[in-house]
Specification:
By secondary structure, this protein is mainly α. The chain has a single domain (11-148), classed as Up-down Bundle (Four Helix Bundle (Hemerythrin (Met), subunit A)), CATH 1.20.120.550. It is 81% helix and 0% strand. It is a multi-pass membrane protein. GO terms for molecular function: glutathione peroxidase activity; glutathione transferase activity.
Length: 149
């Protein structure tokens, strides 16, 4: 038995949220490249050594920016997968939860880079609440599609 997939008319909002992650990534690139330039660390060095970071606040800030960007990259693929699946079953709710994740990731990037690991809490919590909602909706959407088939 085949399944006919109908994309909800509100799915465009889901795609807009997915597209907005490009701007989060660009923000990370700007932060990282600015911190790299200020620190004097050249390519291909991915991080300042522990000794360099301990001696030079600019090298430490570069490490923070790099780590925040890496964390974003680690979380982007699961988020986008969940968002695109969840949006098929719950487009409006997925849009709001996805927007929370995006706002949280902007806050995470800014706070982590400027205040270190302790500064990331608010952005982390906001993004994780969005991610948990997205994950739940994605699982329910998949379940409902499997149940029908």
């Amino acid at each position: 038995m085949s399944l006919i997939l109908e994309v909800p008319k509100e799915y465009g909002y889901v795609l807009a949220v997915a597209t907005s992650t490009i701007f989060v990534n660009t923000y990370h690139k700007i932060i990282s490249s600015s911190a790299r330039k200020a620190s004097g660390l050249t390519y291909p060095i991915p991080y300042a050594s522990q000794e360099q970071a301990a001696k030079d606040p600019k090298a430490y800030k570069f490490n923070l920016a790099q780590r925040a960007h890496a964390n974003f990259g680690e979380n982007l693929t699961p988020f986008l997968t969940g968002l695109l699946v969840a949006g098929l079953g719950y487009p409006t709710q997925a849009t709001w939860a996805g927007s929370a994740w995006v706002v949280g990731r902007f806050a995470y990037a800014y706070a982590y880079t400027n205040w270190g690991p302790s500064g990331r809490l608010y952005g982390y919590v906001i993004s994780q609440l969005g991610k948990m909602a997205i994950t739940t909706m994605a699982v329910l959407t998949a379940w409902n599609m499997v149940k029908v088939a």
